[in-house]
Amino acid sequence: MTATGGALPSPPPPASRARRLYVRLRTWNSRRSVLLGTFAILAVLPVLFPSAYTISTLLFFIPWYIAMTQSWNISGGFSGQLSFGHWGLLGVGAYTTAILAVTFGYNVVVAMIVAALVTLVLGLVIGYIGVGLRGAYFAIATLAAAALMQLIMLNWQSLTGGTFGFPLFFLIIPPVELYYGALVLAAVATLIVYLISRNSLGLAFEAIRENEDVAQATGVYPRGFKALAFGLSGAIMGPVGGLFALSSHYIDPSSAFNLLYNLQIILLVVVGGRGKVFGPVVMAILFAWVFEVALTNFSLYNDLITGVIMFVAVMLIPRGVFGFRGIPAFLSF
Description:
This protein has 333 residues and is mainly alpha-helical. The longest helix has 27 residues, at 222-248. The chain has a domain at 55-258. It has helices at 17-26, 30-48, 52-59, 61-78, 86-103, 108-129, 136-155, 157-160, 175-197, 200-210, 212-217, 222-248, 253-256, 259-272, 278-297, 302-316; strands at residues 166-167, 250-251.
């Protein structure tokens, strides 16, 4: 009975399954729709362009660059760690996958999972040790760490082949399978970035990026969060390197450890927007073919082209192309 003597209203009947589905569809986040639509289009590209040559020389690099870009986005975009060492993690992932798959006969999927674990540990160690370094000092430290990884692979000839390289001709994987493997990795990397952007972990990363001292004063532990960010970032680079090795059929210390890839993914994150989810994906899609055309036709000037584009992008659009006013909110996230 209520205070006025009337009976309490009966609870509404539970919504039917069809009604719940209708409400869920109406409230479906448009940003999720954009992401799902983008990856759906990428999933049908091999059907539209079934040529093995086209898939292996162009299409493969689109999801490959997406995964690599989102990897750097976690550490460099969200937590603000300017890393020039991801090319080292890529090389370690490539050699780990190649050695396990060829020398020890592991399944390639298992080999790439182990590569992810190895680069995860390396990322945690680098992030934890380098927490006291900021800006250019951290960049130089990661660059030195990557160079050390390259020297180890170069001199460990009994395992890696040293300057003679490491052939993977015994692993013949169809280009379409490599493409979908890269697409799955790109989707997982983007999902991780999306989840980070929507929870307290992302807020902690961004607080460290904006002002580490203030973040620490508010209870955010920079050393732990920086190590976690770099570890997650490194875990993605391991399989990225594995896919590179499988698609190249042959790796050596100069090809697997290539600083140019590090510069390119920094460019894609800066232009797409640091700490954004969709911007780096779009930039990776747009620039993947540009990088490959430059590598094929202007190989002597490839580094110069990347450097000039990076300098112009940092100077003119520090907030990324999706940071301009007028860009729809469901795209600038």
